[in-house]
Each structure stands twice: as C-alpha cells, then as structure tokens.
Amino acid sequence: MRLVALMFAALLSWSAAAAIDTYKFNSVEQEQQYRELTEQLRCPKCQNNSIADSNAIIAADMRTKVYELMMQGQSKPQIIDYMVARYGNFVTYEPPVTPATLILWLGPLLFVLIGGAVVILRTRSRGAAADDEFSVQEQQRLAALLKETDRKKP
What we know:
Elements: H1 2-18, H2 28-40, H3 57-71, H4 76-87, H5 102-131, H6 136-152
Helix pairs in contact: 2-3
C-alpha cells in the first residue's frame, strides 16, 4: 500500500515538473529580453495576466513562440507585431490609438468635459432664477398672505 502511494505521489510530481518552461538562451541580455516580452504581452484567456504569469495553455504556446522567434533573430518590435497580427491589439497592455479605439482614449475626457459643462450651466441658470424679481401679481399675493398671517397672530 505504501509503495502504491509513493508511486502515485511520484506520478503527480512528474506532471507538475513538466509544466515548467525551461529555455536555453545565448546570453543574459537575450534572457532579459524574453522576460520583458513575456511581461508585456497579455494572455488572451486570462485577460489581466501577462503570458509570463499565466498557466493557461495558450499562454504557454505564446511563450514558446516568443522563444522561437527570438532564436530566429527577430527583434522585440517584430515579435510584438507578430503577436498583434495573430491575436489582435488586445495582447498588448497599451493598445495603439486607432479610429476603433479612439472612443476608449477620448471617452473619459469627453465625459468629464460634458459633466463640467452641465454643472456650470445648471449653476448659472439657478443663479439667474434667484435674481429674478417677483412679478406684480406675485407681489400682491405675497402681501395678501402676509396680512392674513398677521391677523391670525394673537
């Protein structure tokens, strides 16, 4: 029974060891570039994790592709362009300004400007309404109400 448990534990630990990526780099700079690239690219499945932090299968495939492209001698911008062409602008944490994404970049600014304009206009209109004098009819009614309340007082 003990042997079976030991074999089962060894089997489970083997699958955990197989999930670790091990790559051989030609230089420390190349390894640093790999780490920077995998931190800059977003996992399409996890959405808020980089491919370096994600355990998703697609992230592992993307890490492997980054390594392969680096070994082929491609530069950092070329690798990022390849990933964007394959997975879309979503894989970068800083998507470019395009007509499609312009509303995402300008939306918050427009919201603040429109909100500020509404506040200013409402404040001005309330100030103007407070400065208006009573019409003759309103003054007469007010005088009558004041006389009526004076009569009711003991």
